[in-house]
Amino acid sequence: MKDNPQSAKSPAAETLIPLPQAFEDARGRIQTLVDGGIQSVQVITSRANTVRANHFHKTDSHYMYVVSGSMKYYHRPAGDRSSPEMVLVRPGEMVFTPPMVEHAVEFPEETVFLNLTGKTREQKSYEDDLVRVEVVKPRDHAA
Fold first, then answer.
1. Closest CA to 58 of 94, 102, 6
2. Are 33 and 115 in contact (CB under 8 A)?
3. Domain map (residue ranges) of the chain
4. Structural fold of domain 23-132
5. Residue 45's beta-bridge partner residues?
6. C or N: which end of the chain has fewer Cβ atoms within 10 Å?
7. Strand pairing of 130-132 and 50-57?
8. What φ, ψ does residue 129 adopt, rounded to 5°?
9. Nearest-5° angle of CA 120, CA 125, CA 131?
């Protein structure tokens, strides 16, 4: 993706993406999240005590911006068997996942986030680029 602030850093480097200063006037506020390079955007709602992802992308990358709730974002280089690093992401914060980074997201509470991807989310091409792994083991939660 264009203008990726993480492109020269390793996956273990700081994962939260610094956002540019928002434009504000009497009408309100405009916060730029990503400027260019996006082909697909999803609004994802996740229930409390669930896990998503547990995979890596061979060539795609994506940003995840938390609208409400929070998420524990786990990441490590693809093929690395060490414990993943965890970043707590709160409303108004965003993380970036480059290609070849195993990642999983755990939701301690109901959470809404935006997923902004560099490639289309068309199911076949998405699945062809995806490798499933277990970064975080889903917990058994009573309904």
1. 102
2. no
3. 23-132
4. Jelly Rolls (2.60.120)
5. 112
6. C
7. antiparallel
8. -90, -5
9. 110
For tokens 């809404």, the residue is: 112
Q: Is the pTM of this model over 0.90?
A: no
Question: How many residues make up the chain in this entry?
Answer: 143
User: What is the per-residue pLDDT across 81-112, written as a single tens digit (0 to 9) for each?
Assistant: 999 999 999 999 999 999 999 999 999 999 99
Residues 6 or more apart in contact with residue 62 via CB below 8 angstroms: 96, 97, 115, 116, 117, 118
Tokens at residue 85, please?
């690093």
- DSSP reduced 3-state for 126: helix
The C-alpha atoms of residue 15 and residue 94 are separated, in whole angstroms, by: 8
Give which of 63, 77, 75 is closest to 113, Cα–Cα: 63
* pLDDT tens, residue by residue, 26-82: 999 999 999 888 999 999 999 999 999 999 999 999 999 999 999 999 999 999 999
Residue with tokens 């680029």: 129
Alpha-carbon distance values, 67 to 26, 71, 95, 142 (Å): 22, 11, 13, 26
